[in-house]
User: Which sequence fits this backbone?
């Protein structure tokens, strides 16, 4: 199936539509390029003149004047094939293919022609290599472990992964996506470990993208997800090269997009979104406790405010007598029902989050702290909300920040509101119904065709060793089975448990 689709795409791409690159003559191509003021084309008039054409905004000018023109002047009587061997630049191509000439010039190559009327030319790679310096991770910061994050240059990102996995089995496949942007995307996997089905699935979905421009990996994430209407992310978007190297060793596949400082990894499961990579730098006891705290924090963040609304609206009898007086006193004089009170506070928290995220870092922190204190205190004193609910909403907001993956934290912020609506209409029954809807949705979700709720559904006991808790490394002798790895063995179990002292 994958091969047939690829052939259909190649045939469709080879068919002319309007005036495509295959129909253009070299003169028409140059006329189109010259319409842009950053395109340079000039002829060196010697005994054997030649024409140089390139986009000056994409080409390194030092290479043109230092490495190209002097050699062209000195060796102008040579044929193009001989000239290509004399110029001290790698990967020079000799071609007559108009489409190849067009693509190369638009990506930073210099076109050298002995006759400007003929397509026979040399393509000299000379693209500028402007890139940002490698910095520390911002959204996945960790106290322990490496402090490197991806940058926008795809070659640098692949280099950081290869540095951690220096093996020839690490394969890289490149495709171009976006009809206008022609964005480079690379799929990485370890041959002999990753399931070929997962590799083909990701390659097919990326190749089938039909969109005019792709600017970031998040574009691709939305387009290749199994269910694009789901609020739950189905691939992990990470900025850490060490995390990508680790999941590749597990048998997963990764996707890098040129211009994006993050990578996509999959197939993934729901539990992985609550697992910080720093967990593997801590002892397994501490990491397991912290991971459980995160999971409980997520449940508290989603359910605390809906339970408050449900209990105060329908189930007063569930409140202990000692606590009932405190709640009644806190709500005395408040003109709104609990649902309006909760929505006002939830929206206030979301406004503070967005304001803090969009403002400069130092000002954003001040807005978040001072704004929360001032607005919260003023709302209680004005009688718009109770101090008990204010505490619950603040704790729920703090609990939502424990989620290590940013996309999942946004999902948690979103699904609180349907729970609130169901709690207002049907109380605890409504909360249960909404929870059943969410669980039913996740049971049907898949990531690159793999179950989203694994290893809970379907139940795989062997994969629970790194789900809710993290067992020691010497007990994790198999790779995750939901990935269907070609080589499931990770360690030599007997040798890993041998700790014999060396005898003198």
Assistant:
């Amino acid at each position: 199936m994958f091969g047939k689709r690829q052939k259909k795409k190649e045939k469709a791409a080879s068919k002319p539509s309007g005036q495509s690159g295959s129909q253009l003559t070299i003169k028409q191509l140059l006329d189109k390029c010259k319409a842009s003021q950053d395109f340079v084309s000039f002829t060196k008039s010697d005994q054997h003149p030649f024409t140089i054409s390139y986009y000056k905004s994409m080409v390194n000018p030092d290479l043109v004047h230092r490495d190209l023109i002097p050699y062209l002047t000195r060796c102008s009587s040579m044929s193009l094939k001989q000239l290509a061997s004399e110029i001290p630049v790698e990967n020079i191509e000799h071609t007559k293919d108009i489409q190849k000439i067009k693509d190369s010039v638009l990506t930073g190559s210099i076109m050298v022609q002995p006759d400007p009327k003929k397509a026979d030319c040399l393509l000299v790679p000379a693209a500028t290599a402007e890139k940002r310096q490698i910095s520390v991770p911002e959204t996945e910061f960790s106290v322990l472990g490496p402090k490197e994050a991806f940058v926008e240059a795809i070659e640098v990102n692949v280099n950081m992964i290869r540095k951690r996995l220096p093996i020839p089995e690490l394969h890289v496949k490149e495709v171009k996506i976006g009809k206008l942007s022609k964005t480079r995307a690379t799929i990485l996997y370890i041959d002999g470990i990753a399931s070929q089905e997962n590799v083909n699935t990701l390659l097919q979905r990326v190749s089938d993208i039909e969109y005019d421009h792709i600017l970031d990996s998040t574009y691709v994430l939305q387009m290749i997800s199994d269910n694009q209407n789901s609020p739950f992310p189905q691939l992990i978007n990470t900025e850490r090269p060490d995390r990508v190297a680790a999941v590749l060793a597990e048998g997963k596949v990764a996707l890098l997009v040129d211009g994006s400082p993050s990578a996509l990894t999959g197939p993934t499961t729901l539990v992985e979104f609550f697992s910080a990579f720093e967990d593997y730098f801590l002892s397994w006891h501490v990491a397991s406790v912290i991971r459980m705290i995160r999971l409980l924090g997520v449940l508290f963040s989603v359910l605390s405010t809906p339970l408050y609304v449900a209990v105060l609206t329908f189930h007063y009898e569930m409140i202990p007598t000692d606590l009932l007086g405190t709640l009644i006193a806190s709500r005395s004089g408040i003109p709104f029902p609990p649902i309006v009170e909760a929505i006002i506070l939830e929206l206030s928290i979301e406004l503070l989050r967005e304001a803090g995220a969009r403002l400069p870092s130092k000002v954003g922190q001040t807005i978040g702290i001072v704004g929360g204190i001032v607005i919260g205190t003023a709302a209680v004193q004005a009688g718009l909300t109770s101090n008990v609910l204010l505490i619950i909403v603040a704790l729920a907001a703090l609990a939502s920040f424990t989620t290590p993956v940013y996309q999942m934290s946004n999902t948690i912020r979103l699904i609180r509101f349907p729970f609130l609506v169901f709690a207002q209409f049907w109380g605890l029954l409504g909360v249960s119904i909404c929870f059943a809807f969410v669980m039913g949705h996740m049971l049907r979700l898949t990531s690159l065709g793999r179950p989203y709720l694994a290893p809970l559904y379907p139940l795989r006991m062997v994969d629970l060793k790194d789900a809710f808790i993290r067992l020691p490394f010497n007990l994790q002798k198999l790779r995750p089975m939901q990935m269907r790895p070609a080589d499931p063995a990770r360690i030599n179990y007997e040798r890993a448990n041998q700790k014999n002292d060396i005898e003198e």
Summary: The first helix runs from residue 2 to 14. The mean pLDDT is 84. The chain is about 45% helix and 10% strand.
